[in-house]
Amino acid sequence: MTTKAGVWIDPQKAVVVVVTNARTEIKRFAADTEKPTRRAARSSSQHKYKPTDFIAEDKRERKVAIDRKEFYNEVIAGIRGANLLLIMGPGEAKGELGKQIKTKKLKVAIAALETSDRMTERQLVATVVSHFASAPARKSAAPKKKTARKSTSGGREKKSGK
């Protein structure tokens, strides 16, 4: 039994559609990214700024990267068991998810990365089903190894008669 999955993803949310021979299942994931908190502009402190008023930019970027990685891991957990995968989305999140899947070394073949705008869940299900209905089944996404060609002349070189 072949299990196929489609993912629509952007930085805030992801929708996973898992299609098997018997049924179609939809899973929703929301990113837990929060903006860093700052104190109110009219606080009752006597100093203009405190060290805790702002978060250093590198710490904020690290936190965002960690949150994204956790979000991608949740989505990957939702597609476990799938043999073929279609990843769609409007921005860079689909490429980042593809990279995360490759680093996890999962046994899922990524059929395609497609750019698409927002979709309803019905449109997403229809797109995934029609993509896999028209696409031939693939055994592996790994590139085939090239074999060395043997020469047909048997190692003999032609000599000119001059």
- Share in β-strands: 15-25%
- String of helices and strands: EEEHEHEH
Straight-line N-to-C gap:
68 Å
Uncertain spans = none
Report mean pLDDT, rounded to a whole number: 76
- Kindly name the structural category: alpha/beta
Largest beta-sheet details: 5 strands, mixed
CATH architecture grouping: 2-Layer Sandwich
Tell me the domain tally. Answer: 1
What general outline do the C-alpha atoms trace? elongated
The level-1 CATH class: Alpha Beta
What does this structure look like?
This protein is an alpha/beta fold. It has one domain (4-35, 53-134): eRF1 domain 2 (Nucleotidyltransferase, domain 5). The protein has helices at residues 57-78, 93-104, 121-134; strands at residues 4-9, 13-19, 24-30, 84-89, 109-115. The chain has a five-stranded mixed sheet with strand order 3-2-1-4-5, with helices on both faces. Helix 1 (57-78) packs across helix 2 (93-104). The chain is elongated, with a radius of gyration of 25 Å. The protein starts with a strand and ends in a 28-residue tail after the last helix. The relative contact order is 0.19.
